[in-house]
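tool_call predict_complex ligand=2-acetamido-2-deoxy-beta-D-glucopyranose
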Amino acid sequence: MGKVCIHWLIMFLGLLGCSVLGEEGLGVNWGTMASHKLLPKTVVQMLIDNGIKKVKLFDADQSTMGALAGTGIEVMVGIPNDQLLAMNSYERAKNWVRQNVTRYNFNGGVHIKYVAVGNEPFLSSYNGSFLNVTFPALENIQNALNEARVGDSIKATVPSNADVYYSPESNPVPSAGIFRSDISSLMTQIVDFLAKNKAPFTVNIYPFLSLYLNPSFPQNYAFFDGGATPVADNGVQYMNVFDANFDTCVSALNSVGHGDMTIIVGEVGWPTDGDKNANIANAYKFYNGLMPRLAANTGTPRRPGYIEVYLFGLLDEDIKSIAPGNFERHWGIFRYDGQPKFALDLSGQGQNKLLVPAKNVEYLPNQWCMLNPNAQDLSMLGDKISYACSLSDCTALMYGSSCNNLDANGNASYAFNMYFQAQNQNPLSCNFQGLATVSTQNISQGSCLFPIQIKSASPFRSPSVGFAVTTVFVFVFMLLL
Ligand SMILES: *[C@@H]1O[C@H](CO)[C@@H](O)[C@H](O)[C@H]1NC(C)=O
Ligand SMILES: *[C@@H]1O[C@H](CO)[C@@H](O)[C@H](O)[C@H]1NC(C)=O
Ligand SMILES: *[C@@H]1O[C@H](CO)[C@@H](O)[C@H](O)[C@H]1NC(C)=O
Ligand SMILES: *[C@@H]1O[C@H](CO)[C@@H](O)[C@H](O)[C@H]1NC(C)=O
Ligand SMILES: *[C@@H]1O[C@H](CO)[C@@H](O)[C@H](O)[C@H]1NC(C)=O
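tool_result ok
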């Protein structure tokens, strides 16, 4: 084929890609493990403003669902792992479906398309805690959907970590993919059941974790820009770990007789802080390599074409568990306050533009808490920093993070400020026995941001309510005397 011809073909495929993406679209994960949450209606407006037409949730929170109603946004609702045991009762599963699915199934309601049964329940680090409860929960939920006559359009699926499959060391290529041996019969049952119900297999794929967990992992293989030594597999050259991992999944499904099952990528993304490889530059590089491929429906060598993908995640979540690593609180394509972190063109057209930020976000006043420059006795400083950090997010101070180069005073100020903001700038929370003081000067240093928290949508006791309650108490106490 001549050069011109290829050019036309690419243009044709490109046009095809655009129109298909328009219909199918890109999804995002909306997690809510934040101390100060944006209002659900603010987040939904962000989705609309950025043309995001699909969202994956980790629960079925009523206020979230209320904000999504009438928008036409496609929703995957979720059942958390700690609810799976309860769903082993068919009556409970039916109640769940009634309260969290069919209730919203009306004109102007919520466009629910999937129910995520558990979240990575077979993760090796859970030590098998959810092995016995996940499949019965999946069966009950799908059967309840079927009984409620919505099973044709709403499918239950189990979002799995990519650690449910692997390629053996003797033949480490995607075409050799199989399910993990400790769960292979369970995965066979699950995949058979999904197939019977025409439901998709959902897997979370994290090139970042490949790099994080293996110091000798080739850096370029985590991204989409080439430059890595290709992995050859039966005449196919794998240039990046995303394709290789996805195709290992295809092979694992094939090994249990369902090589044609639809695969959804439930989570994929790159964090921006909390590790030496988690930064804005790498996240930019990753997403701006991924987006054009998705838009062009490039697919993978074994599955060319459209892939349904949910980015992880929408917003930073400052109270997520950091057991897997300090980066856990920094997965957002937006910051905690709905501000975009880096240029990202979700349409995949490669335009160097920022996402549309959240609108009408209310911040606390421009006040920071810092180490008191006049403090004399610093002997308690270490303890006070530990205390502040135990009740707020200091992950940006850690090795490889954006604030790791602060000096000892900077560290103290950072910790004090994070605590002060977490406490909604309560003046009593910026004292630390005289070690701390409030400043109206922005004390951010270089690329290390000392944030101002937003006014929280989640209820907290405001000082005025506290005052009123105290007054009533004092009054009643005086009457008693
Ligand atoms: C519906 O979902 C919500 C939020 O995840 C949960 O708290 C509630 O228990 C669910 N309802 C039922 C009947 O299980
Ligand atoms: C799994 O087992 C390890 C080692 O025994 C333990 O440290 C960890 O806390 C366990 N995790 C869970 C979720 O039970
Ligand atoms: C799961 O069930 C098997 C067989 O009934 C049992 O041996 C095992 O202890 C159970 N595992 C858990 C984590 O409950
Ligand atoms: C600041 O805190 C971080 C994280 O605790 C630590 O790694 C670093 O050494 C501290 N810097 C100084 C100068 O104490
Ligand atoms: C404080 O300064 C930093 C960088 O110097 C800036 O990014 C941030 O927006 C400022 N914060 C406020 C509230 O002005």
